[in-house]
């Protein structure tokens, strides 16, 4: 009994050993085991088949290095009938010698492989089963990283992203005109793409701001319109402050919100004008599109627009401040730093000493006047670049006096200006300087048109570009011994230019407005030799006419910052100096002198 059990146990052990040997043989490529050398466990691991991750990568390589072996010898097939004797015997012996390969063992003992196949440690199923926890941990970590990334993007969008709701329930609404502007942009892109100056998102946003600005100006235009706005809750009782509004779901309309502080209507229009000027710059408007397709008619009551402002440029930062109301309250460290930078440049212009050494006062006065005004309209970086920007920064930071025409770079940049040491017309030199500095000219030039109404349509009859823009007083602006000098404010001169026989206005809003007041009449030889004497009253702020999309006239507000004054009988004689305006103070700046503070109204 005991002997029989021992025999059965030994037999089972032999069978298990045989199965393990066959398993190792199946893991060992044919030809790697030398004749007479039994396979070892180390050789089996070294020649094991690749992991599932490497299976596809090594598929082609393994096919080239180890071509597949036939499963079994087909015997005397039809193609083998002609093979006899030595050749046929050698072919059969060669197949028998490779009987230890993986393919041979797989068919030679299918029962053994079937018993062990499910426990193959190198199979794809076993590898996935063993590493399932690692895969779960990796996927959980990847999901966590993606969620953190999404949260970070959402945090960054909180201050730069806005949602604009546009009502669609009335004729010719902003939603309809937005679709019309988009259609025009697509038509131009197809027909004349070279004339497109900005992406569609910028044009749509410009149209939105311009429409809101025009509606505000109409609301503040007459006493009756202001009274109507007060009755609607849009204006406060003083008819000057815009009310904060919220949507009342029950009443289905906007109602005043006492938790939102009021905003001065004039300040709001100035901010909108600022946004309208800055938004065409690169990287300012990153996104402005509808959440659904634009159309001529809409089913819903509102059209939702998504707006995102950039944050990588100075212009984008100023737009963000304007939309966030930071310019009104002057709160926040970043807004204070921007204002401090502008004030710093303005103070340096006041301390700037430009020596004459001849008849260079026309040049010194023009440069001081331009630099001081630019300090309040975005700084020198907006108007200049390259070597000219470095030169102007250097002379502003210099403590002593500077003679521009002794600087080699300045002389090279002003090449073509005839006889600099002679007295010249200051306005003529400004034109030449801006022609040389195109980066500054694009922000100062006024592109104007003259229109007249024919058959209920406005037609353009004249136009041009000017920097500075010439404005002249009425024809009767001459000295009267009995009544003294006629006096005209800057606003009156602008309005006189606007209200001519044909309606004059700009087609775009310049960043900096430069005006030339016509004081000289030409004689018979067409030489400006007759000076008209009249008084000019500077306004602290002026409004300048700009044509809108539908030929309506809008108004852009400017602050009076500097004046280049001429004293003499002709433009190319006499003396030029500069007046710098800051709030209620006037600074007198002349050649070689630091600006002297003077109060408004002082002789």
Structure description:
- With 603 residues, the chain is an alpha+beta fold.
- The chain contains 23 helices and 22 strands.
- The strands form nine sheets. A four-stranded antiparallel β-sheet has the order 19-20-21-22, with helices on one face. A three-stranded antiparallel β-sheet has the order 1-7-6.
- Strand 20 (575-582) and strand 21 (585-589) form a beta hairpin.
- Among the domains are: 17-30 and 37-68, no CATH class; 161-331, no CATH class; 442-573, no CATH class.
- Count the beta strands: 22
Strand content: 15-25%
The major beta sheet can be summarized as:
4 strands, antiparallel
Number of separate helices? 23
What do the pLDDT scores average to? 76
Shape call:
elongated
What is the strand arrangement across the widest sheet?
19-20-21-22
The proportion of residues forming helix, as a percent range, comes to: 40-55%
Rounded Rg: 43 Å
GO molecular function: cysteine-type deubiquitinase activity
Protein name: USP domain-containing protein
GO biological process, one term: protein deubiquitination
InterPro entries: Papain-like_cys_pep_sf, Peptidase_C19, Peptidase_C19_UCH, USP
Topology:
Blueprint: H1 2-27, H2 41-46, H3 52-55, H4 59-65, H5 86-97, H6 102-108, H7 110-116, H8 124-130, H9 132-157, E1 161-167, H10 174-191, H11 200-219, H12 223-231, E2 241-242, E3 245-248, E4 253-256, E5 263-264, H13 265-278, E6 285-290, E7 302-309, H14 314-324, H15 326-329, H16 333-351, H17 361-375, H18 380-383, H19 386-397, H20 408-413, H21 426-436, H22 438-444, E8 446-454, E9 457-466, E10 469-471, E11 487-489, H23 490-498, E12 503-506, E13 515-517, E14 520-522, E15 528-531, E16 535-537, E17 541-547, E18 553-559, E19 562-567, E20 575-582, E21 585-589, E22 596-599
Parallel strand pairs: 10-13, 11-16
Antiparallel strand pairs: 1-7, 2-5, 3-4, 6-7, 8-9, 8-12, 14-15, 17-18, 19-20, 20-21, 21-22
Helix pairs in contact: 1-6, 10-11, 11-13, 13-14, 16-17, 17-21
Pfam families: UCH
Region (Disordered): 22-124
Protein name: USP domain-containing protein
């Amino acid at each position: 009994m005991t002997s029989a059990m021992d025999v059965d146990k030994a037999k089972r052990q032999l069978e298990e050993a045989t199965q393990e040997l066959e398993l190792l043989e199946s893991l060992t490529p044919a030809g790697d085991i030398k004749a007479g050398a039994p396979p070892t466990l180390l050789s089996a691991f070294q020649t094991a088949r690749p992991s599932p991750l490497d299976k596809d990568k090594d598929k082609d390589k393994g096919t080239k290095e180890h071509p597949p072996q036939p499963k079994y010898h087909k015997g005397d097939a039809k193609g083998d009938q002609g093979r006899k004797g030595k050749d046929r015997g050698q072919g059969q012996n060669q197949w028998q010698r490779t009987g230890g390969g993986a393919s041979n063992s797989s068919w030679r003992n299918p029962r053994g492989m079937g018993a062990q196949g499910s426990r193959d440690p190198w199979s794809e199923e076993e590898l996935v089963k063993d590493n399932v926890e690692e895969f779960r941990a990796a996927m959980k970590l990847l999901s966590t990283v993606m969620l953190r990334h999404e949260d970070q993007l959402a945090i960054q969008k909180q201050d730069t992203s806005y949602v604009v709701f546009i009502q669609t329930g009335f004729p010719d609404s902003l939603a309809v005109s937005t679709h019309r502007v988009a259609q025009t942009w697509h038509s131009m892109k197809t027909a004349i793409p070279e004339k497109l100056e900005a992406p569609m998102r910028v044009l749509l946003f410009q149209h939105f701001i311009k429409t809101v600005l025009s509606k505000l100006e109409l609301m503040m235009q007459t006493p009756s319109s202001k009274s109507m706005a007060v009755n609607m809750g849009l204006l406060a009782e003083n008819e000057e402050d815009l009310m904060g509004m919220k949507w009342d779901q029950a009443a289905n309309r906007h109602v005043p919100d006492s938790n939102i502080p009021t905003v001065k209507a004039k300040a709001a229009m100035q901010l909108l004008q600022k946004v309208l000027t800055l938004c065409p710059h690169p990287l300012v408007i990153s996104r402005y599109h509808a959440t659904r397709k634009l159309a001529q008619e809409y089913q819903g009551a509102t059209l939702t627009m998504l707006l995102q402002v950039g944050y990588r440029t100075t212009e984008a930062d100023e737009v963000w401040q304007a939309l966030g109301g930071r310019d009104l309250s002057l709160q926040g460290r970043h807004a204070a730093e921007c204002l401090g930078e502008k004030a710093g440049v303005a103070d340096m212009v006041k301390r700037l000493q430009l020596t004459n050494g001849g008849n260079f006062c026309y040049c010194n006065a023009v440069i001081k006047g331009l630099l001081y005004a630019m300090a309040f309209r975005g700084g020198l970086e907006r108007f200049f670049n390259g070597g000219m920007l470095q030169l102007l920064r250097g002379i502003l930071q210099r403590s002593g006096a500077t003679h521009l025409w002794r600087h080699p770079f300045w002389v090279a940049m002003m090449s073509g200006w005839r006889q600099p040491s002679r007295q010249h017309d200051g306005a003529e030199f400004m034109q030449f300087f801006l022609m040389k500095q195109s980066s500054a000219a694009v922000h100062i030039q006024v592109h104007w048109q003259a229109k007249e109404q024919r058959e209920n349509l406005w037609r353009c009859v004249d136009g041009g570009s000017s920097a500075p823009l010439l404005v002249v007083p009425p024809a009767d602006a001459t000295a009267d011994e009995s009544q003294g000098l006629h006096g005209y404010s800057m606003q009156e001169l602008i309005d006189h230019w606007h209200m001519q026989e044909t309606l004059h206005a700009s087609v775009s809003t310049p960043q900096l407005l430069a005006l030339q007041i016509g004081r000289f009449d030409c004689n018979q030889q067409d030489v400006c030799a007759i000076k008209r004497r009249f008084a000019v009253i500077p306004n602290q702020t002026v409004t300048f006419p700009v044509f809108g999309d539908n030929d309506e006239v809008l108004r852009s507000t400017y602050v009076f910052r500097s004046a280049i004054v001429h004293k003499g009988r002709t433009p190319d004689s006499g003396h030029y100096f500069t007046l710098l305006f800051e709030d209620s103070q006037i600074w007198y700046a002349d050649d070689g002198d630091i600006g002297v503070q003077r109060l408004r109204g002082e002789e």
